[in-house]
Each structure stands twice: as structure tokens, then as C-alpha cells.
Batch of 3 targets.
Target 1
Amino acid sequence: MTFLTVSKVHHTYFSSKTATEALQDINLSIDKGEFVSFIGPSGCGKTTLLSILAGLFRPTAGKVLIDNQDIHENADLSIGYMLQQDYLFPWKTIEENVTLGLKLLSKEKEAANELASKLLSDVGLPPVEKKYPRELSGGMRQRVALARTLAVDPKILLLDEPFSALDYQSKLKLEDLVHKLMKEYGKTAVLVTHDIGEAIAMSDRIFLFSARPGRLHQTFEVPEEVRSLTPFEARANPSYSTLFQTIWKELESLEHQQSS
């Protein structure tokens, strides 16, 4: 069932002297519960499109619908946005950081704290509710950021390179965790990444964009035998390697066209 629809989206950035076309005629749809990735060369508009999906600004032209509702005309639409940095408030405890969105929704304090404890447990953390962000490692802080994002029960999760600042071991562990929780919670997710391997290991489909202006170049279906595995296990599957080589060659071709 189609959950998110991007229809004829264009976007141009204007300054006092120039107009830069970032996206051109983007059309795509994402099913409920699907995990997709956006990849492409630098300047292909991946993050611009993710910001539009988040409702941070309107596209110059076109529409984005979630559950057949225009994202810019529904103030109650909950969208989760997880970034490369965790953006935890250093002066607040972990519990206070996780429940911040719930307080804005006027959730009763005791119920909010109970939910925070459950989510922190779900993301694999020990009891850290009364600690402060400075007392946690980078990987643990990103787990807190994930718990905070899930706390408001968002309709969709938008992930903008959330693992790229972590060491490789923490990155792989968080990939597995996010993949598992998205399936368990039945969430729809969009990941922006430069990492082809990460996109294949985590996604059901991959959208490859070309640059200047950003256009949807090709869509890749991740084989079922890869999708049924955890991201860590997926990397050892022969179909993973085959798809990696296919996407790599296509991306190399796009970057060659861009530079010539």
C-alpha cells in the first residue's frame, strides 16, 4: 500500500544573484513499512529532498503526500528526523532528552518516563535515564537519539547519514538495531547515505539520483535473500556483492558524466 508519494517535485535555491536548481521532476512512491535509501553523487539533492519530506520547507513545485495528506497542510503529522549528530541537550538528563517531544504533546510525566525507560531498553541501553549525554559514548548517544525519535510514534523516520560519524563497529551495530526496530515497530523509513553497502544491507529499495540538478536516475530492488538477513549478515550474501558492483558502476558512470 502506497504510504508516501512524491509528485513532480522541483526545487530551486534563490540568492540575490543566482538561481540554483537542486531537484528536477522527482516522482517516486514508498510503501507502508518499507525501508528505502537515497544515494548518489555529491550535489544530487538527497538531503534537500529529505528536508522537503520532513516538511522543513516547501518545494518550488510539486507535492509530497503521506497517507494521502499534504505534509504542509497537516500540523498533526508526526515525522521523525535523525541526523548525523545526536543533538541531545547537554544540560538535560537522558530521560529528559527522550521525553522532550512527549512533553510538547502534553503526555503525563509518569507515563512519559515509563515509555522512555522502555525505549531505552529497546535500543539496547542499560539504565541510563539519570545520566547526562557527556557520560555516554557516541554510539550510546545515537541510541538515545533513536529512542527520542521513536518516542513520539512518528508516521515515518527520515535518517540523514545517522551512522557516518561513528567508528565502524558501532556503525554496524546501530545498522542492525535500526533495521530490527523498524521491522518490529512497522515503521516506514528513508535513509540518506553515501555508503552503497549500507544502503543495500538496510533497504528494500534504493533510489539512485544523478546530480545538477538532482533527478531520479534508477531504482534498484534489493533481492529477498538479502532483505531477509540482518545488515551485518547481508554483507556476506553473494547477491549483496552482485548488487554492490552494479550500483558502483552506475554511480561511477554518473560521476564521470558530471565531471566531463
Note: The longest strand covers residues 2-14.
Target 2
Amino acid sequence: MVDVGPGRYALPMETPPRSTLPAPGPRAPSVPPAGAVARLVRSLRGLPPAQDWWGPGCAGLPGWFHAESAPTTEATPRFRELYARVRRGERVLPAEAGRHLYLFVKGMLGDELFGYLEANQLRLERRGLETHSVCVDTEAPLEANLAQVRKALEDAAFFGRSVVLVGHSKGAVESLSAMALYPHLRAHVRAVVALQAPYGGSPVAHDLMASPEMRRVVDIALPLLFYGVSRCVEDLCYPARMDFVRRHPYPADLPTVSLATSRDSRRSPLWPVAHYLRQRYGLASDGLVATVDAEIPGSRVVRLDDLDHAQAAMLGIPGLTPYHPGDLTEALVALALE
């Protein structure tokens, strides 16, 4: 006890133990989880350098199927007549048009693009026609989407409906492939409209997958950004298309209209790619598909030299594109039903 004054005592105070915890420092800022683009960049940086690629690319491959397929028929003049009438507000669809179901099949990345094929489909609906979008996965391989096209056709057949297939880009390839692969369904299809289909293959897809540097970008980007697989790009390379078409040739007796386009204008967002294909291979293209690869065997071909790959399926800036997707589709469907 400690004497603190007359008659007053107090217990000695114990010194409190010193804390062993470190002094609080500045709080670290919270870091948001990395997005898909950041993960993509980090994944690419972590890969070893790719081998240099100096191969021939797709030289000599575009249009490979023309020598071994049914000839096409020129339909551009007739299309221009119909398109001009559509622009004037005249009726061009035949009376039978109302009896059919119109199935639209989207191309690659179609689920990611705002307004993709909407104007095309809406135009037919405004003409009183029944339309439906086939539930394909636009970043899936050809084989998986063929099953969806087949199911849509079988459903229509079950209810006694005749069908007009309208496909764009890879979606057109899937429509054409279904007709080649499932002969029993052809009786239920009145016509096929193939918009800018890489039927023979795509030089862009081929060069992407042939280059080791670009292929690894595709292998990583599609799963990270779009939950897809690089197989959907590989399906459009020339070797894959050669193998499929030679085993399953397209039926020349099925009424088909194919739109084969090109555009080499700086006003087009796809001009850098179209310019690359022209400079390296001498190809006329719409920026993604060579014109000669979009001319379906046995079809009536519409050839336009002022339309890029996006403008047939999406609304463009007024004054920068000469065609409206709805007008284009209405004229092509009328042509297919003649």
C-alpha cells in the first residue's frame, strides 16, 4: 500500500500491458474486380510470344466452289426494280407471302449488337407477315446452331407451315447448311434469302485462325468477352467450309436469293478490313466476306458494290449508307417468291 496522506492509503496501480498490435496505418483503397477486358489484357500478357507468321494466308481460296457447283443467275437488275418500287411505297410482295412463316437467323455476335436484324424483321411484320427469330447462340459452333434451325423447321412443319428462311452472315450459312444436311425438311421451305453469307468461307476468319498471334487473341477473347468459343470462327475458315460443302452440297433446286456485296469506301467502318483484303488478295469484299464467297450455287444473285457487311442488317447513319435494311429485305423476299 502507498501512503498518500494522513490516514489515507491506496493500492499501487499496475502499468497496463503494452499492445503488441501494429499501429493502424492508412487504409488501402478498395479495388473493384477486374472486368472482362482487363482479364483479357492480363491473360494475353501472361502468354509467351507467338511465332511469327508469314504464310500465304487465303490466297487462291476465295470462290473455290464455283468450278464444281451449279451456276448462278444474275438478278441484280430485277432487284433494283423491286427496290425502287419499295422506296416509292408500292406493294411488291406477292399475295402468297402471307401464307408463310419467316424465320430469321442471326450471324456471329448478333446477340451483342444493338438493333441487329430488327429493322429487317420489323418491315415484314408491318406488311402483315408472321416472323420469328431462331434461338441460335451467335457465338456457338455451326453444329450446335444447326440443331436449333432444324428444331425451328420441324416445329413449323408440325403445324403445317411453310417457311422462308432469312439469314445474315454466319446465320445464312447455318440456314443453307440445314437445307443441305436435312433433305426431309426441304419440302417445308418455300425459299431461302441469304444475306452476305460466307458460304465458301471468310478470308477474315481464315487469316485470324491461321496467324498464331491473332488466333490466341480469338481463343481468349471469345470466352472472356462473349462466352463463346473460337470454333465458331474456325467453322468459317476455308478448309472447314470445303469439307462441309463437298460432303453436303447445297440443293440447286431450292428457290434461293443470295446477296453478295462489296464496299471500298472510307465512309464505311469496315473500310480498313476491306482495304486490307483488296491490297493483299485483290478481293472485292464487304469488309468481312468476299463477294465471290457469298454467291450461293444455283441461286439468283444480287450483286451490290456499295454496301458493307453491317449495313444490310443494321441501321446506318443517314446519308452514309444508300440502303435501308427493311427496304432491302422486302425487295429480296419479293424476289425470292417470284
Note: Residues 142-158 form the longest helix (17 residues).
Target 3
Amino acid sequence: MIQASGLRKQYGTTVALDGVDLHVREGEIYGVLGQSGAGKSTLLRCVNLLERPTAGTVTVAGQDLTALGDRDLNRARQRIGMIHQHFALLSSRTVAGNVAFPLEIMGVPRAERERRVGELLELVGLDGRGKDRPHQLSGGQKQRVGIARALAGNPSVLLSDEATSALDPATTQSILALLKRLNTELGLTILLITHEMNVVKSVCDSVAIMAAGRIEESGAIADLIRTPGSRLTREIFPLPEPAPAGSVTLTFTGDPRQPVVSEVVRKFDVDLSILGGSIEDLSGGSVGRLRVALDGAEAPAALAYLRESGLIVEEAP
């Protein structure tokens, strides 16, 4: 649904994006994770060409946006919704007026606008709040208005620029749940910019980790979790590094209640010491990471058994 190839964005001598490739599949929630200054917001603005890249191409729904003139680009942008970190609502308009604004620009007749606005406010849980002003709303409600406005033109792609970073944890979870529901019910492809790992863990199917204008790691979360040495895995499960000499790090997916450790101890003549670990609930299911020390003549056979059981086994030097 979204494909960026060789994206470079330069402001004078400052390079904000340095050869970025991004591939977002239709219908997924894709997170771009990085600290401030990593280039992730610049990447988002290049996807809908609010920032025109210095080099490279951006294709959305099969259409090369970088090849379009202004009129065709404006038309293409109607299929790309965007929600902002600080809501960007018009204080002079009501809630309904804010949601209707893009429809007015598109020339949608008044009766159709009113019907569509009513549908959208109900969809985001703000039915009956259309006459309120933005200052009467909580932060979470303001963001729901922003989401409704972004959906006004029936987009196939929704871009989210740190949409939850100004919200408290409970409100953040409610907004993420709303985005996940919209993704499921409407088939929306969502590209989500964040610096919060919890956002990625809660709703994302795939992720790209950015630093200094480059993507350091990307792919489906389920695949990255099963990739030895993955940076994503290390950040989700922050065990002390480097791993102690002779230790083994085990990564497992699926049912975390499986008695793999006790099975190994029963089957093999080994002593097993747990050095650290945790279990996390990701959008695709539970994942665990455990660091252990194995001693005994049958330790190699025990490690082979763990690999055969589907665990990722990483041995420290």
C-alpha cells in the first residue's frame, strides 16, 4: 500500500532522511519507532508529500505521488488521512465543523456532509458532541475528533504523527484500541510514528526502527522477534548486555505457560539457573525472553532440544 524507495531529504547541509526504503502492506498497522531527531516525522510528511523528498520515490496504492503535479497530488491526498500530535483543531469551529472541514474543501453537498459527519462522530464514540467546541473536550476526545476528520474522505491510508504522545496512559490505550478497531473494521492501512515502545507492542503488525535518518531494522514484528540479534527484541526485553559468558538467551512465542524449562531439566542431566527474563503481550500474542545458564554434560543436547521445540537459542561466547 505504501512504498518509499531511496528517500533522501536534505535541509541545507542537514540530512534528515538518508536513503530510506519503506514497504507497508495493505491492511496492516506499521509503526516507525525512533527517538527525537531520528527522521520519523520527516518520513511521514514525505509519504503524503507535505515535504517533497530531495531524492527517491513514494508510491501509495500503486500511484507514484512524486510524479504528480499539484492538482493530481491534491486529489491523491484525499485518500490519505492524517492525525496530529496536538490535534490541530480549529477553535472557531464546533466539533462537527472540524470534521466537516475537509468535506467542504472537497465540495461535498451540505446534506451529504451532515450525514457523513454524524456517521463519523458515532464511529469514534462522540455521538451527540457535534455542537461542542474543542475547548470543552478532553485530550482524548480532541484526538477522536482529529481521527474522525482524518476519515472524512474515506481514506485507504491513515498517517498518525505521535497521535498519543500528548495523552495520559489510559487515554493512550483507548485511542490505540480505536485505531485497531478502525484498522479491522474499515481495512485501513495505518502508518504510525511513535517514540514509545508500548505503542508498538500494543497495536503494530510491523515496525521500522529509525536513527539518524536511516532505518536500522524493519519487518513484521513476529519475524523480528524470531531473528537472533534483533534490536527490537532487545528493546522489548531489556536484559543486561553483554550477556555473561556461557549464558544462553531463549526467545519463545505462543503459550508462555508451556513448561519448556522444567521439561529440559527432567529430560537431561543439566543444572539450569535463570539469570533474568520477562513475558510481554504483543498485538500478535505473547512472547517471552529468558536468559539462563546451563551446566552439565548434556547441555548441548538440551540446547538442541530447545531449538527443536521452536525456541530461538542464542549462546553467549
Note: The first helix runs from residue 40 to 47.
